[in-house]
């Protein structure tokens, strides 16, 4: 996962330090693009317009056009800028294209509105207008061309990233960009392909290798990575036959209130489902009867309640440390008391602590306590909770999810799980791991409570905290995908469905 600048540095390193010629990389890019799309194009019926800009994205377009024409596809090349504006590697490939005996249409030979008419002759458009070199606001005639392509009935394949989208996805205000059905991106996914709303313009995304040596990527040391199924199957804890319930962790969940009894049930069930050995639920005595009838595997620690919510934990930190390997606090806690027991835990419980939901509401007043806390602390806010914690607007967070979560995690020395499509797990050192599972069925109450229970279960069974969190996040999203792929309508998935299909999801992974 790279920014535009990091991609440029990777390119430069491959070309200048390793000595791969840019023209070669461009040839590889064009050929890889064609290999990826031929299965989607019917050679007999497809009529393809390749729209070519002035930079190297356009250069790719010349390689793509030459390759498709050599394969017998019906292709028209539309060169948008005047010929003399095409430079460098793009110029090299334009010359190769022309000397291979193929022609081009210069956009400037037709009036602007004529182009709209022309588009009706094509079934497909290949967008090689702008790539990672795009910045600022779209200049003419690209703006008009993009509007017309989006209005046409053509199916659009876009080269590297949709024209009008920046690689970093920061300026999401005035989004005028190519709406692609497929994006074939080179070597590394760009940040904007995992940020909404830019992501919506990519359509189906495939990443193709264009022969850039891994050393070039490592040298630029981008600290953002996808957390893939391969990472999960490689790192998920495997049960040892000799294990016993004590070896899979004893967790405490502090959650629930008289008016919110479902959240602690979801969190506790999810924690059991993902293999925790022993789970105790600390909940106000006023909520206990309603919850206890639903949870047979859990034990309880009853807390004095005020306003139907936990008023005090009524247990000392050193007893907590002796009894529990980790604590998760927050689901359904309520916000009507002072939450001082959370501050006491931050200061005095020297083992891993997960703070979620209403726990984050109180945390806002105890943030300085995080600056001195040395032990593992995991925060799992959604966009709204993170906006509240940081006093930023949700829009601001959405535009700068990577940067803002990195700054927060590094400042407070916490693992930050910024939930949403493409949940980002950030470590205290600022490494970021992006989740790629899940769907809109997760956007409803209770799903966050389930994730909290899953994170608690795995951090007690895996040494590496980031891997445990990323695995929990992956499985959580994969449960939602499992449901929608097996007949559940995404509207009707409820949080407890996620918990119920975890065995199948684990089974699918371990047998994949
Ligand atoms: N390793 C790789 O990823 C490779 C990538 N390749 C392709 O190269 C482009 C990046 O090429 P670059 O020349 O840097 O820029 P672009 O082609 O994206 O665009 C520059 C071009 O666009 C004009 N421009 C910039 N901003 C605007 C604007 N707001 N409005 C209008 N026009 C604008 C600018 O003037 C330039 O003329 C990358 O995406 C890949 O597709 C290599 O081909 C192979 C290796
Ligand atoms: K493009």
From TrEMBL:
Origin superkingdom: Bacteria
Molecular-function GO term, any one: metal ion binding
Pfam families: Carb_kinase, YjeF_N
PROSITE patterns (UniProt xref): YJEF_C_1, YJEF_C_2, YJEF_C_3, YJEF_N
GO BP terms: metabolite repair; nicotinamide nucleotide metabolic process
PANTHER family reported in the protein's UniProt record: ATP-DEPENDENT (S)-NAD(P)H-HYDRATE DEHYDRATASE (PTHR12592:SF0), ATP-DEPENDENT (S)-NAD(P)H-HYDRATE DEHYDRATASE FAMILY MEMBER (PTHR12592)
Classification via HAMAP family: NADHX_dehydratase (MF_01965), NADHX_epimerase (MF_01966)
Designated name of the protein: NAD(P)H-hydrate dehydratase
Organism: Anaerobacillus isosaccharinicus
Lineage per the UniProt record: Bacteria, Bacillati, Bacillota, Bacilli, Bacillales
């Amino acid at each position: 996962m790279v920014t535009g600048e990091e991609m440029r540095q990777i390119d430069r390193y491959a070309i200048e330090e390793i000595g791969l010629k840019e023209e070669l990389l461009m040839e590889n890019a064009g050929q890889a693009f064609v290999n990826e799309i031929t299965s989607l194009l019917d050679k007999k019926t497809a009529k393809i317009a390749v729209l070519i800009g002035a930079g190297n994205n356009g250069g790719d377009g010349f390689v793509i056009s030459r390759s498709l024409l050599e394969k017998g596809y019906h292709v028209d090349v539309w060169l948008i800028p005047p010929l003399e504006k095409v430079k460098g590697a793009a110029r090299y490939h334009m010359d190769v294209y022309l000397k291979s005996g193929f022609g081009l249409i210069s956009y400037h030979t037709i009036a602007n509105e004529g182009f709209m008419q022309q588009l009706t002759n094509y079934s497909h458009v290949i967008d090689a207008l702008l790539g990672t070199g795009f910045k600022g606001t779209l200049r003419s005639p690209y703006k008009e061309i993009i509007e017309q392509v989006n209005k046409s009935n053509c199916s659009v394949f876009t080269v590297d990233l949709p024209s009008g989208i920046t690689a970093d996805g920061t300026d999401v205000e005035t989004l005028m960009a190519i709406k692609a059905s497929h994006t074939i991106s080179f070597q590394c996914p760009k940040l904007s392909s995992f940020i909404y709303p830019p992501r919506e313009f990519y359509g189906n995304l495939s990443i193709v290798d264009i022969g850039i040596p891994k050393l070039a990527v490592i040298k630029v040391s981008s600290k953002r990575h996808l957390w893939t199924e391969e990472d999960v199957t490689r790192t998920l804890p495997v049960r040892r036959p000799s294990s016993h319930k004590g070896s899979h962790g004893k967790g405490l969940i502090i959650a629930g209130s008289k008016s919110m009894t479902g959240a602690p049930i979801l969190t506790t069930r999810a924690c059991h489902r993902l293999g925790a050995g022993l789970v105790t639920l600390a909940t106000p005595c006023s909520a206990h009867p309603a919850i206890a009838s639903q949870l047979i595997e859990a034990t309880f620690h009853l807390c004095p309640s005020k306003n139907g919510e936990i008023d005090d934990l009524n247990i000392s930190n050193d007893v907590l440390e002796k009894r529990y390997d980790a604590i998760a606090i927050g689901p359904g806690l309520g916000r009507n008391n002072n939450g001082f027991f959370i501050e006491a835990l931050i200061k005095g419980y020297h083992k891993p602590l997960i703070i979620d939901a209403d726990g984050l509401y109180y945390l806002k007043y105890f943030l300085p306590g995080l600056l001195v806390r040395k032990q593992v602390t995991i925060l799992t806010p959604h966009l709204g909770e993170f906006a509240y914690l940081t006093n930023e607007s949700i829009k601001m967070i959405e535009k700068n999810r990577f940067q803002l979560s990195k700054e927060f995690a590094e400042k407070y020395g916490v693992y930050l799980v910024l939930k949403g499509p493409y949940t980002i797990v950030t470590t205290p050192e600022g490494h970021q791991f992006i989740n790629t599972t899940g769907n809109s069925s997760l956007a409803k109450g209770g799903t966050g409570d389930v994730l909290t229970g899953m994170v608690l279960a795995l951090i007690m069974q895996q040494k590496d905290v980031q891997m445990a969190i990323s695995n929990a996040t992956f499985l959580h999203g994969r449960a939602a995908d499992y449901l929608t792929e097996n007949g559940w309508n995404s509207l009707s998935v409820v949080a407890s469905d996620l918990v119920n299909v975890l065995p199948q999801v684990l089974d699918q992974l371990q047998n994949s």
